[in-house]
Automatic annotation (TrEMBL), chain A:
GO CC annotation: nuclear pore outer ring
The name this protein goes by in its record: Nucleoporin Nup43
Keywords: Nucleus, Repeat, WD repeat
UniProt organism field: Asparagus officinalis
Cellular localization per UniProt: Nucleus
From TrEMBL, chain B:
Membrane-spanning segments: none
Keyword rRNA processing: no
Record protein name field: Nuclear pore complex protein Nup85
Claim: Zinc is one of the keywords in the record: no
Function: Functions as a component of the nuclear pore complex (NPC).
Subunit (UniProt): Component of the nuclear pore complex (NPC).
Length: 314, 712
């Protein structure tokens, strides 16, 4: 299947993460493969690696390129950093790992990194993804489709959690990615193993809403049978429809999967498949300035840019 | 290959029994001598690890005891296609190959299909496949879309094509494009036009000559005085690059406005030749835009036009106008062109460099009708005698193999020059139309361990893919198409993938799922479980073992875990176990010995509620949890006393005895068992105060007495 609006650009290396930035061409060295990449402001980049390090990079206003900034090399995690997230607009960075550690990292005065450990389960629990909900709250996800909600104002562990043992049989059940919409902070949407995409409304705690996948509900459709690597709210639809929708409604979500699918899901609607590639789509990003543009990284050492027709208001 | 070296004559693939000159790889060690030992071992792919060690005890201050150097072997990479580009081709060919295999399987499954329609349909699939691969190897670059055409730009110097693509196209022409076998010579003319520059790296070719002329043209004022100009035209004409020949002719000085009056006859002759060149009849269905000539689809039409065209040439050759042409070079140059078009062997031989060019020239001007493969083969042999080339390229060897109808040679040359990728993908083309090749490729061979040549090449290619960390995951597609040994090697491949990163494990499991290798996926999960358990990721380790339903290991792990938990029976740190317990789920059986944790958590929870002063029924529920825990074989013995000690309040419940007689008896028996166990050497004591056992005993006795009184 070839899509005339999809352009693929072969690279000579594996692409682990992609993010839209202002038009700048820059290259920053990394000690190992990147597990998570964020750009909280147009002037900064934060990324974590498989070797367990965390790096900041800032835009040099003089020559317009990104320069390596402070780095946390050791003792942040035992093993690799699974996922990071930075407060939008540039603030604290939260990092999680399969070692069960949750850390907050920030760049203080004089460009010095300061970090503190929020929790350490000593490996009894592992976290595979994290996402800020507000300046003080964040959600983590991990094994068994479990989700946890943390509030820095109430230290000592997660303040509420979604029981994860609703997954089927002996198929893997891991959360790979979480997203929280700024207008609906009480809903976490998560994607993981077995093509599963579900939402967790903090107000109805123990019942996940399955959007796709082989969950408990027999009626939910399944777009994919493999791992969903990333989910992001799709802001392609105009903002008026977002504000007018009831607060219980799950807004459209874009996902990419191991079996090469890039699609948009909406509650109670047929999913829209944007791409069906012969290899995995590892990650994607929607251009915040122009949401009809989507960039994605494909397993076979290439990136692709998809241009969607502009949405008409409805 | 087994048995190959001993018997070169009967080998499937021809080979040179004399070993080639060994290749020397100089390595730099920078280690102070003496070196006492050298270890060499394989690393990933074609990397060798060479470890040089100094004698033990000789390591002075700041001196390294040894050094390991990485040596990259082979490097057959001649620079034409880089590593990244090779991987791009490898990735891109997977979907086409997989589609063709699945189509073959579905065609095979259709029982009621005549052999003819089977062939037809299969051929169409192979054609599509060969086009997909050919696109992948690079599409011809379109000439730059400049509006004003530069008349002096006769040869578009676009990006150099690759030999790999040239080889693929050659195979496609001879093995797949069977509908066009009548137009085979013209196909070869087109092929040479695209790839002439690749025929030799060192020897002169028409392409290299014309490229030289193109550079010179920019500065040349009076072109017709330069012998290279006339040679260029004859070269282009000889191999049928008519557009180039005509473009060059029209650069002739006599076309210039200030000269046209004084050189009228000369210009008339040049134009007449140009018209003859551009109207040459061609035996082909059509001509792409920009190419000259007149195409004829049927042989009879073509022969008629051909005779007529030759008549025009002969007529011009004997024209009286030549006498009036004062420019010597022009007269001679044009006459030479006419002789080439008339198929004069001497002129043709002079107007070509490589034997293949001569061969094409023959096909164009001497034998323009379809000829058999055999005929072409003997023609090629003749041309090689006339134009022996010192350095033969892999491409011409492949061509000779094809013309000689020798599939083995074609395969061997493809393998030698272009490597396993081409051989693996080309076998599909070779056997499409040729039954002999089909048998040769698919016959099971004793000397290959019962596999076919086709399978052998796929296995070799899969090995190459598996040895690279970025391409191993596409090897399964090829292994799955190997009926004999593919599955075994696939299992082996999956089994030995590293499990450090969970993304890798998930990839592995995904492949297992696609090929329905449940057994391997369960083993991979067990390996992953143990790895993570050992590396401190206890929850993750337990998770994988639970997925793999590995009761044995879970039970062992449970014992270790309980050692940590035993100390925290009554404190708050039990909270951090919550996550793990959640993960274990409530299904009994899937958690091995860890199901205890779940019941224990429930018991602790309701006990908490009892202490908060809840009602009788909550207390009764707690007792039921206690009895279940004490009955369960998965509850470790060392938890018995702490559990009973925590329940003293329940045993002394004010309102009524909460335990029945039989329940109290059960607990007393357990206590008794515990006292006996104390004598055994492997008993592990709890950290409870010494009087704990006494208080439990007393509470049990009290409860028993009250229960006997209560019960009717």
């Amino acid at each position: 299947m070839s899509n005339p609006n999809f352009h693929q650009f072969p690279q000579s290396k594996s692409i682990d993460s992609v993010r839209f930035l202002s038009p700048i061409s820059s290259s920053i060295p990394s000690p190992s493969r990147i597990t998570s990449l964020k750009s909280p402001t147009p002037k900064s980049i934060v990324f974590s690696t498989l070797s367990g390090t965390l790096h900041f990079a800032f835009l040099d206003p003089v020559d317009g390129s990104f320069d390596s900034g402070p780095t946390v090399e050791t003792s942040l995690h035992r093993g690799s950093v699974s996922s990071i997230d930075v407060v939008e607009g540039g603030g604290e960075c939260v990092s999680v790992g399969m070692d069960g550690r949750v850390n907050l990292v920030g760049v203080g005065e004089g460009g010095r990194v300061e970090w503190k450990r929020v929790a350490d389960s000593n490996g009894l629990v592992g976290y595979s993804s994290v996402r800020w909900g507000s300046n003080v709250e964040f959600a983590t996800g991990g094994l068994g489709f479990g989700l946890q909600w943390w509030d820095q104002r109430r230290p000592g562990g997660a303040v509420s959690q979604l029981k994860g043992n609703w997954a089927r049989g002996n198929m893997p059940s891991m959360v790979h990615s979480i997203d929280i919409h700024p207008s609906r902070k009480h809903i976490c949407v998560a994607g993981g193993s077995g093509g599963t995409i579900f939402a967790w409304d903090l107000r109805w705690q123990q019942q996940p809403i399955i959007l796709s996948g082989a969950g408990v509900s027999g009626t939910s459709q399944s777009l994919s049978e493999s791992d969903v690597w990333e989910v992001q709210y799709d802001n392609h639809t105009l903002s008026s429809s977002v504000t007018s929708a009831p607060s219980t409604k799950i807004l459209p979500v874009m996902m990419c999967s191991e079996d090469g699918i890039l699609a948009v899901l909406e509650q109670d609607a047929e999913p829209i498949e944007l791409l069906g590639e012969p290899c995995a789509i590892n990650t994607f990003d929607i251009d915040p300035q122009n949401p009809s543009e989507v960039i994605c990284a494909l397993e076979w050492e290439s990136i692709g840019i998809l241009t969607r027709p502009r949405m008409v208001a409805y | 290959m087994p048995g190959l070296a001993s018997d070169p004559d009967n080998s499937i693939v021809p080979f040179d029994p004399n070993p080639p000159t060994p290749i020397i790889y100089p390595i730099q060690i920078n280690l102070k001598p003496p070196i006492s030992r050298i270890h060499i071992n394989w690393s990933r792919g074609n990397l060798l690890h060479v470890a040089c060690l100094r004698p033990a005890g000789d390591s002075g201050e700041g001196l390294a005891g040894g050094k390991v150097v990485e040596v990259k072997l082979g490097g057959a990479d001649d620079g034409e296609i880089g590593e990244a580009e090779r991987r791009r081709i490898a990735y891109g060919s997977v979907p086409a190959f997989a589609l063709l295999q699945s189509r073959r399987n579905s065609l095979m499954a259709m029982a009621r299909m005549s052999a003819a329609s089977f062939r037809n349909e299969w051929w169409e699939h192979v054609l599509e496949y060969s086009n997909q691969i050919s696109d992948l190897l690079g599409r011809p670059k379109l000439p730059s879309g400049s509006v004003i055409e530069d008349p002096r730009m006769v040869l578009q110097l676009v990006e150099k094509p690759t030999s790999l693509k040239a080889a693929w196209q050659l195979l496609k022409i001879f093995y797949v494009d069977r509908l066009s076998s009548a137009w085979l010579p013209e196909h070869l003319v087109d092929w040479l036009a695209d790839y002439d520059g690749l025929l030799s790296k060192t020897d002169t070719t028409i392409h290299s000559k014309l490229a030289g002329l193109q550079k010179k043209l920019v500065d040349l004022q009076v072109v017709e005085d330069d012998p290279e100009y006339w040679e260029g035209i004859s070269l282009a004409l000889a191999v049928g690059w008519l557009d180039i020949a005509v473009k060059l002719l029209r650069l002739h000085g006599s076309y210039q406005l200030d000269q046209i009056d004084s050189r009228e006859t000369e210009n008339g002759l040049v134009e007449a030749v140009a018209v003859l060149v551009s109207t040459m009849p061609r035996m082909r269905p059509d001509l792409p835009t920009g190419k000259l000539g007149q195409s004829y689809k049927t042989k009879s039409d073509f022969i008629k036009a051909w005779e007529k065209w030759r008549g025009h040439i002969a007529k011009l050759d004997f024209s009286t106008f030549w006498v009036q042409c004062g420019h010597h070079q022009t007269r001679e140059g044009l006459k030479n062109l006419l002789q080439i078009m008339l198929g004069n062997i001497k002129n043709i031989t002079n107007a070509t460099y490589h034997w293949m060019e001569l061969c094409i020239s023959h096909l164009l001007y001497m034998r323009p009708f379809t000829m058999s493969l055999e005929g072409m083969h003997s023609l090629a042999q003749k041309c090689m005698q006339l134009k022996p080339n010192a350095n033969s390229s892999g491409l011409t060897e492949v061509l000779l193999g094809i013309l000689g109808d020798n599939t083995e040679v074609v395969l061997a040359e493809c393998s030698r020059t272009f490597g396993p990728w081409l051989v693996t993908h080309a076998t599909e083309l070779l056997s499409t139309e040729n039954d002999e090749a089909d048998i040769l490729l698919h016959e099971e061979r004793y000397n290959l361990g019962g596999i076919s040549i086709d399978e052998l090449h796929r296995l070799v290619y899969a090995q190459v893919l598996s040895s690279h960390p970025l391409t191993w995951q596409i090897a399964p597609t090829y292994l799955a198409s190997c009926p004999k040994q593919g599955l075994g090697l696939l299992e082996n491949l999956l089994y030995r993938q590293p499990v450090q990163h969970f993304q890798m494990i998930l990839k592995n499991l995904e492949i297992c799922r696609l090929y329905e290798l449940d057994d391997i996926s369960s083993r991979v999960m067990k390996i992953a479980g143990m790895y993570n358990w050992k590396h401190g990721k206890k929850g993750f380790g337990v998770y994988w073992l639970q997925q793999a339903q590995d009761e044995v290991r879970l039970n062992k792990i449970a014992q270790r875990l309980f050692e940590c938990i035993g100390k925290s029976v009554s404190d708050d740190s039990f909270k951090q176990w919550e996550g793990l317990i959640e993960l274990l789920g409530s299904e009994v059986g899937s958690a091995g010995g860890l199901e205890f944790l779940h019941k224990y958590r429930d018991f602790k929870r309701s006990l908490q509620q009892v202490q908060d002063g809840r009602a009788n029924d909550v207390a009764r529920q707690t007792v039921e949890s206690l009895i279940q825990l004490m009955k369960s074989p998965s509850t470790p013995q060392r938890f018995w006393l702490p559990l009973l000690h925590d329940s003293v309040k329940l045993l002394n419940w004010k309102d009524r005895p909460l335990l029945s007689v039989s329940e109290t008896n059960l607990l007393m028996n357990k206590l008794q068992e515990l006292s006996l166990a104390k004598l055994r050497p492997d008993f592990c004591d709890t950290e409870l105060p010494p009087k704990a056992i006494g208080s439990v005993r007393l509470a049990l006795a009290t409860n028993l007495a009250r229960a006997i009184l209560e019960e009717p």
